[in-house]
Amino acid sequence: xxxxxxxxxxxxxxxxxxxxxxxxxxxxxxxxxxxxxxxxxxxxxxxxxxxxxxxxxxxxxxxxxxxxxxxxxxxxxxxxxxxxxxxxxxxxxxxxxxxxxxxxxxxxxxxxxxxxxxxxxxxxxxxxxxxxxxxxxxxxxxxxxxxxxxxxxxxxxxxxxxxxxxxxxxxxxxxxxxxxxxxxxxxxxxxxxxxxxxxx
Length: 200
Prior knowledge:
Elements: E1 8-9, E2 12-13, E3 20-33, E4 39-58, H1 62-75, E5 78-82, E6 89-98, E7 106-115, H2 121-126, E8 144-146, E9 154-157, H3 164-171, H4 175-181, E10 196-198
Antiparallel strand pairs: 1-2, 1-5, 3-4, 4-7, 5-6, 6-7, 8-9, 9-10
């Protein structure tokens, strides 16, 4: 069985995936009450998802890992949350809790993310990078295949070690946008060298 990719939020990569991970789906409803105990329910549509989990950091750098995660929590804003199984989401980091007194070599924690809109300003801002910089330090143009006509599709050829999030950041586009442009990619955490990814 293949090993799952690491969970990521913004630039933070979990050294090992959280032990428990759950998703709550919310739907907004309105209630209109009438005399004689009659009422009518109105479906206002799907609301945000709540993504929760718990895990442990173990080893000599356990507490340092937790401090790094706490720094990310205090930074605020929205960013891409990539889980090895669930659909990627633009999310807010809304809760981080210790489950016991931390030790230098062991920290048990819980976390909560709220899913934001699929296209949020925060995701686009965070995804903006220098178009000429690539994951392997070379010129970004090495992986571009673009048609000459203005407004035509721009495609990127995946290089070894690249991720979909890194490619989106390289071109200054949102991760959700890249995922939407590439329905052939079933698992956003699994792309292969030589594969073509549409970025615009």
